Amino acid sequence: MADLRIDIISDVVCPWCYLGYSRLKQAIEQLGDDYRIDIRWQPFELHPDMPQTGADRETYLGERFGSPEKLNEATHAIQQVGIEAGIQFNFSEKDRIPNTKLAHQFVLAATKSQLATPFVLALFHAYFTDGKDIGKQNILEEIALGIGMKTSDIEYALSAKAKTLTEKKLQQLRSIDIHSVPTYVINDKYLIQGAHTPESFLKVLNDIAEKES
Fold first, then answer.
1. Which of 135, 140, 170, 132 is nearest to 157 (CA)?
2. How far apart are CA 18 and CA 37, in angstroms?
3. Per-residue pLDDT tens for 72-83?
4. DSSP string over 65-86
């Protein structure tokens, strides 16, 4: 029996984080019953300068990519990769990029209730497929209740304690030079970056399990 703790450092508005988890999950399913996997979600802000109210996606990312044409190319590419992974990425002219700090506070609350993975996956789906603004408190509350979180979990997510802990974690990860996501830290020793193929993830997990046994 091999124990693998996987810390997934990600942001809920990062399409590659969504794809990366989908591929990692496929790899984990192939590992079999000899492995105990403990997944922990850690916060990262892809756009730390994002205003509290968010920003228009086309304007904000158009500037980041250099032109609307380059953004369109990147958007079509991610949609194609999504189709192959069974993920539907829908983008429209009305889309906004939210500030994700509050979403990370909700992930922290979900973690306390052993619901972090279902909650993060529900956030990914709400944002990328349904086009919801996951920076809004009412949307986050709706998603939280939808996956079985309680009112007390929501109260904790909105608390000063959750805000302070989330900020502390964000600063901690910045201080160890994590600048891109998804990043995976396995058993606090092994660092993997990027949305690798399921086969690549499987090889890495097997290699680490052998070293750790």
1. 140
2. 19
3. 999 999 999 999
4. HSSHHHHHHHHHHHHHHHHHHT
